Structure formats: C-alpha cells, structure tokens
Structures
1.
Amino acid sequence: MNQHSGMANLWSAICLIFTTSMLGWITLRSVMSETQRSQQQLFAAQALASSESLLETAIAQIDSVYSGQDIAIDAAFWRNASNSQCPITLTSPQWQCLKWTPTEAVMFDNRISALAWPESIDVTNSFVLFVRDVRMAPHKIKITAQISLNSEQPGVGSRATVQQSLYIPISAPWTPPALEPASGPEPTECTPLEWRKTFGNIKPAQLKAISTAQLQTGLSSLSQPSRTVYWIDSPLTWTQSLGTHNAPVALIFSDTACALRCPQIASQAAITGMVYFQSANACQNPVGLLTLNPEAYHFDWPIGIDASRVQRVSGSWKNAGF
Amino acid sequence: MPFNLSEKHSLGGFTVLEALFASAILALGLFGSFQLSTASMAANQSQRNLDIASGLAQDLAECWQVPSVFCISQFQNLQNTGAHSTEAGLQFERNWNITAISTQGTVPTLLQNLQISVKWPNQDKLNGSNELRWEIRRASTPDWVGL
C-alpha cells in the first residue's frame, strides 16, 4: 500500500512537472510568435519607408533631368532602355523600360549622382524601373521602386515595392488650331503660326523627342503596333508608305531636311495621316501642308495642367506590383 | 514480528526519500518554468517598447508628408526633441533632423531627408538605452490635383 503511495507521489510530481513545462512552453511559444509577428510588422514598415524614400529619390532625379532642360535630354535619359527590362506583361515594342541600379544611376550625370540612394537598402537587390508607352502616352512615366533592406538594418532581407507615375514635359495638351494669331506678345521661342495651327502647344523639339523615343524602342511602319511620329532630318526623297486609317502617322520634315529644298514624296509612297514641312527658317511658315490628323500627337492631359514641368499623376501612388 | 517492524521502517524511509526526490524534481521544473515565463515577459516587454518607439517614429514620418496645420507646426524647426512617457512611466525621447539633398541648378528643397531617432531606457541594463532610427525622403515635385 505504502509502496503504491510513493509511486503515486512520484508519478504525480512527474505529471505536474510535465504539465507545468508544457504550459510554460506553450506560453513561451505564444508570446514569441506574437513578438515575431510584431517584429515582422516593424520590418515591413521599415522596408516600405525605404522603398518610399527610393521612389522619392527617383522622382527628384526625373525632376532634375527634365526641369529647365532642353527636351532633347529625353533621348539621353532613355538611351540604355530596352524592352528586355520590361515586366513580362509589357512585351509590346511600344513600351520603353529603363532599369536603374545605383551604379547606372550614378553613370547618367553628376546631377543624378548627387541624389544618392537611401543608405538602408541593399543595393544588389534593389532597383528603380521607369516605364512608359511611347506611342500612346510618352508624357507619362511610371516609376517602380523595389528595395531589400541591407544587413545594417534589423529587418535585413525585408522587401517592399512602391510605384507612382509622373507627367514629363515631352508634349503639351492639344488645343484646337488657332486660326488667328494669339493676341499679346509673341512667345520667345520660335513657333511659326502654321505650326501652332497644326500642333497647338506642342513644340517642334517635343515632337522630335517623341519620334526619337519611338525609334529607340524599335517601333517602325512594320512593327505591331506601328510607329506614329516620324521626324525626318534627311533631304532625300521619301519613298516609304506610312500609316493606315486605324493608325495615321505624323510625318514632319524638319528645317534641316528643308535647308536647301524640302524633300519630295515619291508618287508610290502613300501617307495616311499628315505631312508637315518645316521651312529652312523655323520661324517662317511651312512650305506645304497635306492632310491633317492630330491623333498621333494628341495625348491625354488633364484640363488646365501646366505641362511645362514635371508633376505627379494624382492618385497613381501604389504599394507593390508592377 | 521483528521482521515485520524492520520492514515497516524501511518502507517509511523510502517514502520520505521519494517525496524529497519528487519535490526536488518539482522545484527544478517550476524553476525552469519560471525562467521561461521571465524570458517571455522580458521579450514581450522589449517588443512592446520597440513597438511604441516605431509608432512614435512612423507617426512623425507620416505627419511630415501631410500639410495639415498640426503637422506643419510640428516641423517649424529643422531639428527638434520631444519626450513621451508611457503609462508605465518609461520615457521615450524623440529627435529629428531634416536635411536637403539637392543638386546644382535645382531648388534646395528638391529632395529632403527626415531622420528620426527614438531612444528609451534599457530595463535590463543599468544606464543602458535602446535606439530606433527611421528615415524617410520627400521630393518637392508637385502633385497635379486638377483645377
């Protein structure tokens, strides 16, 4: 009987220990998992703050590139862009994509390198991606910033992605042709009346930049979709047929092309769209003007916007995703 | 009979030893359990303090990006210090500093950097303190919101 009582004591103590230990272990696990969850939230918030910082840095970089500059800077900025850098959903040649790591950002010029990337990010696993549609909206750039926190941060390896779109001054809101000269002083830049009648507020340099961008991405008369803006500096006779009823083109022979005598269009070349000849002196009216069709350079701008500077597209900020 | 008596004594002694042994195991187990509870409470408290610190930092970082009257008044000076205490009496010290990152030919406020530091005492170490650093940037590029 006593022997049994002793065994019962021992057994009870062991059971109690086991139960207490289990309870302690479960409590510890519960507390630790809550602690871990809280830590993960902190790391995620820190990663998001760093990705926002990188996005803001990229916005400032775009602002410094385009503000107060000749729009010809556009071609230089996108010179290393390629379709292979685009997200897999954007395979069409109308998409122009430029991926920047810190090294590439520094290589552009010293204005960009001064706007250094945030110190908290792992530069080998972080990048900024600039994307735009050179055919439908060359004036809108979507910027995506993806970061991974570096080893100096408690949440090392945490990732976050944010994106926002910007308007850049590569075109202007299209305005109906002004048949009469605008009252008031003439603009300081050389924009002849015929040009303004046809292209509204869009400047020759802007259309040239759009043409260059379309050429850079590989758009052509044979690509799908096809190129819509052609800025031609060559004085040679034009022999290529361009444009369709669904996709009319704008073919502009520049003042360089018209320096001696404006190029001729061969009889077999059918142009669907419009052709514009700049005269040798850009301040003079054009030599000749064919069919009008504004679709190729008529982009979607908000009413009343000052298109002369870089601005954020309202409501375009997004957390994660391409 | 003597055989029976000695048998009783030996049985009683074994039970006391056994009880002592059981108590020792119980004490050891309870000590372990107590240690676990202490560790989990310390971890929990430490994480709670970190949460409060990150909350203070994120609150200020959010406020920096909102042009409300309250938030603008918060950042009248480019650097500042503020103290906050919890219901447990723990003091959190929040410092911030705004610096401009700009390039030649651009406005000085083109890109600004807000550095926030939150410090609080380390309850495990005497005179020790913990610190959380938070950084956020803001470009002055305007947002087109229409007419």
2.
Amino acid sequence: MRRANVSAAAALVFKRDLTLALRRWDEVTQPLIFYVVVTTLFPLATTPDLAQLRTISGGVVWVAALLSSLLALESLFRSDVEDGTMEQWVLSGQPLAWLLLSKVAAHWILTGLPLVLISPVVGTALGLPFDAWGTLVLSLLLGTATLSVLGGIGAALTVGVRRGSVLLSLLVLPLAMPLLIFGARAVSMQMDGDSPAGPLQLLAAIFFLALSLGPLAMSAAIRISVES
Amino acid sequence: MWTWLHKFASPPHAYRLLGRLAPWFGWPALVIILLAAWWGLVRAPADYQQGDAFRILYVHAPSAWMSMFIYVVMAVAAGIGLIWRIKLAHAAAAASAAVGASFTFLALATGSIWGKPMWGTWWVWDARLTSELILLFLYFGYMALRASFDDPQRADRASAVLAIVGVINVPIIHYSVEWWTTLHQPASVTKLDKPSIAIEMLYPLFMMIVGFQLYYGWLLCRRLRAEILRRERNATWLKEGI
Amino acid sequence: MDLQSFFNMGGYAGFVWSAYGLTAVVLIANWWAARRRESEELISARRRTQQLKESRT
C-alpha cells in the first residue's frame, strides 16, 4: 500500500471528524446550551442591574466559555480509542501528533468556534458594551483554541479512566488559569478605555506555545493510553 | 557511565544504597532545622516594621521554596523516567508528590497566618499566595491522575506527561498571577515585599532552606525504599535480600 | 532575653507560634508517614517471601 503523505492524512482525519460530528448534532449543541445556561445563572445569583453586571461581564463570559469547552472536550478521543481507530493510527506510521492536531482542530471548529460567535450576544445580555465585542471575540478565539490543545492533552491522558470528566477538569483548569487571567483582563481593559494589546499578545504567545508543544504531549499521552 | 547509571538504578542496589544514605540526610536535617528555628525565633532581632510577626518568614519562605523545588524535581524525574525508561526515576516522582503537596499547604497556611496581622484578613489575593494555591491544584491533579490507574506503569507514564506539561506552565502561571495582582491592588502587596533586611537576618532563612532540603532528601530515601519494595514484590532479589 | 517576652513574641504570639507549630506538625507527619509506609511494605514483603518458602517445602 502506498503511504499517503502527512498533510493528506491530516486532511482526511479533519474531514472525517467534521462529518462524524455533523451526524451527532447534539454533541455540538449541548455545550453551547450549557454555556448560555451558565451565564444566565450569574444575574440570577447576583443582581439584574446591568450597570453592576457590566463590571463582571467579561469574567463571567470567560469562565462560562472555559467550562463549556472543557465539557465538550471530555469525549474527544474516547470513541476512537474504544473502537480501535486510534490503535490503527498509532501503528500507521503517520506522525500521530499531526493526526491528533487535526482532530483537535475539527473539534474546535465545531464546539469552540460557535461558542466564540455567540459570546457577544451573551455578553450584551450581561451589559457588555458594543465596543468591547471585538476584544471579547479575539481573546476567546485565542483562548478557546489554546484550551482545546490543553484539554486535548488532558483528554488523551484520561481516555481510559473511569469518571474521566471530573479528573479532566481537575487536570486542565489549573493549567488554563493564565488564559482566564489574560482573556478576562483584556476585555475589562477595553471597557476601561485602555488598549488590550498587551494581554492579547500574551494570549497569542501562549497559543503558539501550546500549538507547537501540545501535539507532542498529546501523542505521547495517546501512545501510553493505547499501548497497554 | 551508562552501565554505572543502570547499576545504580537497579532496584536491589538502589534499595541498599538509599538505606545507607538516609541517616546522612536525616540527622543533619534535624540539627539544622532546630538550629535555624532557634536562630529565627530567638537570636534574630525583631523587624522594625512588622515586629516579631516577621519571624513567620523563616518557615513560610522555605516552604514556598520547597514546594516549587519539589515540583521541578518531580517533573525532571518524570522526564528521565519517560525518556530513558528508568523505573527508579518514576518512583522518585511518585514519592515526591505528597511531600510537595504538604509543603505547598504549609506555605499557604503560614502565609495566611502571617497575612492576618499584616493585612488584617486571613486571605488576600496576593500574587505569591495565589500562585501557591494554583500549585496546590497542580499537585492534586497529578496525584488524582496517578491514583486513577490500576497499572503502576501506566500511572507512571501518564502522570509523567502531566508533570512535564505542568512544569512548562508553572512560570506562565506565576507570571500571569503576578501581572494580575499588580494591576488590581498595587498598594497592599508592598508590606510583605522583601524589606531591605540586614544580611544577618537572612542567615536563618538560608539555613532553614538547607535544612528542609536535607529533610526532603531523607523523606525521598525512605519513600523510595517503600516504592521499590512495592514495585518489586515479585523479584527474586527480595527473597534473598531481606 | 527573658522567657516571658520570648513566649509573648511582641504581641504576635498566637500567629508566630501557630505558624511554627503547624510547620512542626507537617514535618513530623511527613516523617511518620514515610517511616510507617516503609515498615508496612517491609512487613508485607517479608510475609510474601515467607509464604513462598512455605509453599515450596
């Protein structure tokens, strides 16, 4: 059999995952609904006053986005490991890191991106001003993408573990705290009239660091989970 | 060099060596910690600003230092175990986690006790305390992941990946938390900042750090011996050795 | 210096002594846990080898 080259294999994985996810539509929509529900909790728990909500709106949107994308990441590799697909990939001789990265990318497009796109609406409901939309979307784009890589490492480590979802949050949330700090801070700086360039650049730096090293850690973790 | 390393890392040899090494860590640790405590509590003069409350520094700062040091040791050991497949390194990482977590807890608790007279509250979202708290979460995550596998080899390798990812993240977390607190509350942090203290007031601090290091060395010897016994329960050398 | 002012710690007695006491507790607990774990493993290893010897004879 002729061996397909790396980019072709990665593209195939990407397409396959998109098609599969589109067939299981509820897995895509559930984190989104969770996201909206969680953000609704905050006004109910604190105050309906928009002026007061505005001060915490960036943080609330960010926390809710972190939690709901983590929720979606839990089952990222599970079905592939259970039905033996992952084992085939490990043995295929293709660089596993690339295959996993394209899998994560497909997953992010289906769960992370919609989350980012509806966040201005959610933010507005919490009193987020219109001119902070751009910063919110940009920071969430970088943040959820980085979180997908981090969560991918966590999902790869916990794939064979009972009650993996709680463990996954326990592993990934501490690692994701810098994202939360920079992302939420960028939004509030924009609202205060400062330039959010600093935290956004830091977010971008973390994103590229995760993008370059994350897939390696992911493939190491998958090999450990699959081998035994 | 490699044969030497493998001989050293072979379980029976390491087991005996650690047993012989332990007292060389244990007794100096005891003497130095007691000496440092005496120096910090009695000999060092009270701080002109904080009075006697600053003496907490002599246990708080060394614990904070140890908590980070042990995390790095754990990650390095995990990396060695993962790359060169040395079981003893994995065992060292496993033996370190609980000790590191207890030092992190100690740093948090003493920091909080110190904060009460200085800030007026038990907890302040100060940069150092917050990053210690996140470090504690990292330790918990590591221990939880390790505990969730039944097969020790899988537990070793999976938790090793986590430790390495974590140690890359530690500076980022530390920096981000520092940046976050300077933006939010620039005034209140300065009180706990290192005052320009005289060099002789630092002696007990360094002594305490050395004492804690030796103490950690002793703990590592003991815990590693226990780990070796547990992992090698079916090996033939055990039947003759003990 | 007299003992009274040493224990008083300039009015910060509760804080200083509880911090040092907590440190002592954590250090001793770690010491105790390490010793106990080692002796437990040693006992179980001895029992195993004993059982193996008996089963062979």
